[in-house]
Amino acid sequence: MAATIQVILQQDLKNLGKSGELVRVRPGYARNYLIPRALAMPATARNIEHVEHEQRISALRAQKARSEAAGLAEKIAAVSVTIERKVGEEDRLFGSVTVKDIASALKEQGVDIDRKHLALAEHIRSTGTFDVTAKLLGDLTATFKVHVVPKK
């Protein structure tokens, strides 16, 4: 009997590997645990070919998403947002400017981005110019300016 057999993992498993990897395991472990729980499948030629095809498609999708995010990053970097707010003494705002306000101001300028992707370095509670970072995809970010001016 074989000491080890090859299986293709269908899920990430701690101490074994990531999904789509070809790994060697003991036959009993594969037969009694991995395959019945759909954590792995036998490494036949057809299954290996199918997994490689899925990985190629996934890589193409990721590349397309990254290029779209890079285009959005360029568009965001070229934008400058102006927000008017009522101010009190010493140019202090009544309340603050939130990421929701910034996202709606961006939408008015034709850039549609979810507010959850916007990050403020500090709370905006006074007038002035502030840098806001938009986290787009993985490590891809874009920074733009937000100008807070007093309402007349």
Summarize the structure.
With 152 residues, this protein is α+β, with helices and mostly antiparallel strands. 34% of the residues lie in helices and 34% in strands. The strands form three sheets. Strands 4-9-8-6 form a four-stranded mixed beta sheet. Strands 2-1-3 form a three-stranded antiparallel beta sheet.
Any overview of this molecule?
With 152 residues, the protein is α+β, with helices and mostly antiparallel strands. It starts with a strand and ends with a strand. It folds into 2 domains: 5-67, 3-Layer(aba) Sandwich (Ribosomal Protein L9, domain 1); 70-150, Roll (Ribosomal Protein L9, domain 2). It is built from 3 helices and 9 strands; from the N terminus they run E-E-H-E-H-E-E-H-E-E-E-E. It is elongated. The mean pLDDT is 91.
Question: What layout of secondary structure does this protein have?
Answer:
Blueprint: E1 5-9, E2 22-25, H1 27-34, E3 40-42, H2 45-77, E4 80-85, E5 92-97, H3 99-108, E6 118-120, E7 124-126, E8 128-137, E9 140-150
Parallel strand pairs: 4-9
Antiparallel strand pairs: 1-2, 1-3, 5-7, 6-8, 8-9
Query: Shape, please?
Result: elongated
* Oligomeric form: single chain
How many separate domains?
2
Please state the second-level CATH architecture of the largest domain: Roll
Q: What is the CATH superfamily classification of the largest domain?
A: Ribosomal protein L9, C-terminal domain
CATH topology of the largest domain: Ribosomal Protein L9, domain 2
Q: Biggest β-sheet, characterized?
A: 4 strands, mixed
Class of the largest domain in CATH?
A: Alpha Beta
Low-confidence stretches: none
Beta-strand portion reads: 25-35%
Spatial order of the strands forming the largest sheet: 4-9-8-6
Question: What is the H-and-E element order?
Answer: EEHEHEEHEEEE
**End-to-end separation:** 85 Å
Count of distinct strands: 9
Continuous helix count: 3
Radius of gyration: 25 Å
The chain-level structural class is alpha+beta
Average of per-residue pLDDT values: 91
Proportion of residues in helical segments: 25-40%
